[in-house]
């Protein structure tokens, strides 16, 4: 409770207890008009009204002190009962019961020497116990309600934060997936363009039809690469675009991929011993296609013009085995295009997600890329 609210609450409490204390004094005057008791009641009423704001800062101590005043005069009863209510609303239940018991004892003492002749002490105690029990119950209920509301607010805040975190994670995973997909496509596309551009540069004496064909391939490849690059930028900018309609390559598309590399001048040999490529699950088929694509791309970039051998083996109920090897260029030969080194890292993760394993090594004058992907029956 901030200071402004406390000041307003203190003012309200002084006014309320002052009115109720005044009514109590008026009642005692009409019942017993002795001057001594009237002076005592007025003094107790003034002190209890002045002390009632203490309940907002020190509810337990204030309630006990007002209980002592209530033992002297009924003028302190409104402030004492307000103190019991404050304790019940803001302190643990056992503390509230103890303060209420002290208040009952104080009013029992008041009844012993100030009780009206029209009511017995027993009924007086019953009424006091009922009143304090109601105050404790009311305060405990209000405290439980506040705790419940605070708990619901906290749960809502946590749920909102958790939902935001899940949305952010899902968005990041989708962006990563699409960026990896586009990396594979762009790396392959740009390596082909570099191959054709190299042919145009180093073979200007080629027949005109060969030059025209190479230029057409470069032009088409540039358009395709630009379109794919726009999609990558769209993913990174969180644009609401649908990438689910793009056809995803599978194992059956590997021969077309190899033929595309041959058209670019690469000496690629394909040995396909796969029993039924269409029976391979789509996720495993995409992973297999990307393995071959990355291997051909790396061969073009780092071992341009050297032979590449691709072997595919497998059937349902066993596993798909991919073996891609190419000769290494002489030491010091620069690559056709620079590489980031992340292609094989992403490819290893892709194969692992398909349940398989990817290995690569450079030894005995050749680079070898091997993958094993489970193929359920």
Automatic annotation (TrEMBL):
Asked if the Swiss-Prot or TrEMBL record annotates the protein with the keyword Ribonucleoprotein, the reply is: no
Record carries keyword ATP-binding: yes
Reactions accelerated catalytically: ATP + protein L-histidine = ADP + protein N-phospho-L-histidine
Which residues are in the Signal transduction histidine kinase subgroup 3 dimerisation and phosphoacceptor domain?
A: 174-239
Q: Record's Pfam families?
A: HisKA_3
Q: Name the Gene3D superfamilies on file.
A: 1.20.5.1930, Histidine kinase-like ATPase, C-terminal domain
The UniProt record lists the EC number as 2.7.13.3
Q: Which UniProt keywords apply?
A: ATP-binding, Kinase, Membrane, Nucleotide-binding, Phosphoprotein, Transferase, Transmembrane, Transmembrane helix, Two-component regulatory system
Q: Which spans are transmembrane here?
A: 6-26, 38-57, 63-85, 92-109, 121-141
Among InterPro entries, the record links this protein to:
HATPase_C_sf, Sensor_HK_TwoCompSys, Sig_transdc_His_kin_sub3_dim/P
Q: Which GO terms describe its molecular function?
A: kinase activity
Task: Note the coiled coil stretches, chain numbering.
Answer: none
The name this protein carries in UniProt is histidine kinase
Q: Which organism is it from?
A: Actinomadura algeriensis
């Amino acid at each position: 409770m901030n200071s402004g609210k406390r000041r307003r609450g203190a003012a309200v409490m002084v006014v309320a207890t002052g009115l109720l204390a005044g009514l109590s004094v008026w009642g005692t005057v009409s019942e017993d008009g002795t001057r001594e008791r009237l002076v005592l009641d007025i003094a107790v009423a003034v002190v209890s009204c002045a002390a009632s704001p203490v309940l907002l800062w020190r509810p337990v101590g204030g309630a006990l002190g007002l209980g002592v005043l209530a033992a002297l005069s009924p003028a302190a009863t409104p402030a004492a009962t307000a103190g019991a209510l404050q304790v019940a609303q803001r302190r643990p239940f056992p503390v509230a019961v103890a303060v209420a018991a002290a208040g009952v004892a104080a009013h029992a003492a008041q009844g012993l020497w100030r009780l009206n002749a029209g009511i017995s002490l027993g009924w007086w105690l019953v009424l006091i116990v009922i009143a304090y029990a109601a105050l404790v119950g009311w305060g405990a209920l209000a405290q439980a309600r506040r705790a419940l509301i605070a708990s619901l607010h906290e749960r809502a805040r946590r749920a909102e934060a958790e939902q935001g975190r899940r949305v952010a994670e899902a968005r990041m995973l989708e962006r990563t997936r699409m960026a990896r997909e586009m990396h594979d496509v762009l790396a392959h596309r740009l390596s082909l363009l570099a191959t054709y551009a190299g042919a145009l540069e180093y073979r200007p004496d080629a027949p005109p039809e060969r030059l025209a064909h190479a230029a057409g391939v470069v032009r088409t490849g540039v358009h395709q690469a630009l379109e794919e690059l726009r999609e990558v930028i769209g993913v990174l900018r969180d644009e609401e675009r649908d990438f689910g309609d793009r056809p995803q390559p599978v194992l059956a598309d590997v021969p077309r991929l190899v033929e595309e590399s041959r058209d670019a001048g690469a000496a690629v040999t394909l040995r396909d011993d796969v029993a039924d490529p269409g029976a391979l699950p789509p996720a495993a088929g995409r992973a297999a296609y990307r393995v071959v694509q990355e291997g051909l791309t790396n061969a073009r970039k780092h071992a341009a013009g050297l032979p590449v051998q691709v072997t595919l083996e497998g059937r349902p109920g066993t596993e798909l085995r991919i073996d891609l090897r190419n000769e290494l260029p002489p030491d010091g030969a620069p690559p056709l295009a620079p590489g980031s080194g992340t292609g094989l890292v992403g490819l290893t993760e892709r194969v692992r997600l398909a349940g398989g394993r990817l290995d690569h090594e450079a030894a005995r004058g050749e680079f070898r890329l091997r993958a094993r992907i489970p193929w359920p029956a």
